[in-house]
UniProtKB/TrEMBL annotation:
The gene is AQP8. Its main location: membrane. It is found in: Apical cell membrane; Basolateral cell membrane; Mitochondrion inner membrane; Smooth endoplasmic reticulum membrane. It comes from Electrophorus electricus (Electric eel). This is Aquaporin-8. GO terms for cellular component: basolateral plasma membrane; intracellular canaliculus; mitochondrial inner membrane; smooth endoplasmic reticulum membrane. It catalyses: H2O2(out) = H2O2(in); methylamine(out) = methylamine(in); H2O(in) = H2O(out); formamide(out) = formamide(in). PANTHER family: AQP8A PROTEIN (PTHR45665:SF6), AQUAPORIN-8 (PTHR45665). SUPFAM superfamilies: Aquaporin-like (SSF81338). InterPro entries: Aquaporin-like, Aquaporin_8, Aquaporin_transptr, MIP, MIP_CS. The chain crosses the membrane at residues 12-35, 47-65, 72-93, 132-155, 162-186, 206-227.
Length: 237
């Protein structure tokens, strides 16, 4: 009886908690870096804060849950056989709940004027329809880069590296520096959902689900068909 409870706890409860806590800490840091961003730093402050925070929570919690903290990452890892499909919905739920917790904490400690000016760290870069397609394409490409970094650095046996947390964090930093001005460089529906819900800012929110999920599907397809090791490619047969 005790062994079964321990087994269930380690296989299902611990990973869920790790995703919840990691997502909350990462998204809190991300929101605060935007809310408190000075005019002179541009994308640099959010880029560094998101990349560093993500790298750290992956290094700390990755051995428990895989260190996803992002529904798009969970989808891509699931597609390449690195996550049991039973855990996919619980992982995404944990990440979204973590997003709500992180964004709520950011609201509690932020000066109201800064919070209001930045929509609470929600993604408010896209203001009209002319920006729509560039933003969607940017999210697809940047999420493809991020999920490729995760799947190749942490899941694919031939390319797996102990530097994976570092690589994944740096990919986020590079993406924010590259595409921050086009779409806000979200790449993470949980990072978009938390502050959108807390600040009630839903304008063009769907972009940050559609773009990242397409990117995740492209990565999964690319690795399953071409870049993956033999075990991953055999999953198709």
């Amino acid at each position: 009886g005790t062994k079964l409870i321990t087994c269930v706890f380690q296989l299902y409860v611990q990973p869920w908690l790790a995703e919840l806590v990691g997502s909350a800490l990462f998204i809190f840091t991300g929101c605060m870096s935007v809310i408190e961003n000075g005019q002179d730093t541009g994308s640099l402050q959010p880029a560094l804060a998101h990349g560093l925070a993500l790298g750290i929570v992956i290094a700390l919690l990755g051995e428990i849950s895989g260190g996803h903290f992002n529904p798009a990452v969970s989808v891509s890892v699931c597609l390449v056989g690195g996550l049991n499909i039973i855990l996919l919905i619980p992982y995404i739920a944990a990440q979204l709940c973590g997003g709500l917790i992180g964004a709520s904490l950011a609201k509690v400690i932020s000066p109201p004027q800064n919070y209001f000016n930045t929509s609470g760290g929600a993604f408010n870069t896209v203001k009209d329809r002319a920006q729509l397609w560039p933003a969607i394409i940017a999210e697809v490409v940047m999420t493809l880069f991020l999920t490729l970094s995760v799947c190749m650095g942490a899941v694919n046996s031939k390319t797996r590296t102990f530097l994976a947390p570092f690589c994944i964090g740096l990919t986020v930093t590079a993406d924010v520096l590259a595409g921050g001005a086009i779409s806000g460089a979200c790449m993470n529906p949980a990072r978009a959902f938390g502050p959108a819900a807390v600040a009630h800012y839903w304008t063009y929110h769907w972009i940050y689900w559609v773009g990242p999920m397409i990117g995740a599907l492209l990565t999964g397809t690319l690795i399953r068909l071409m870049l993956g090791d033999e075990r991953i490619r055999l999953l198709l047969k």
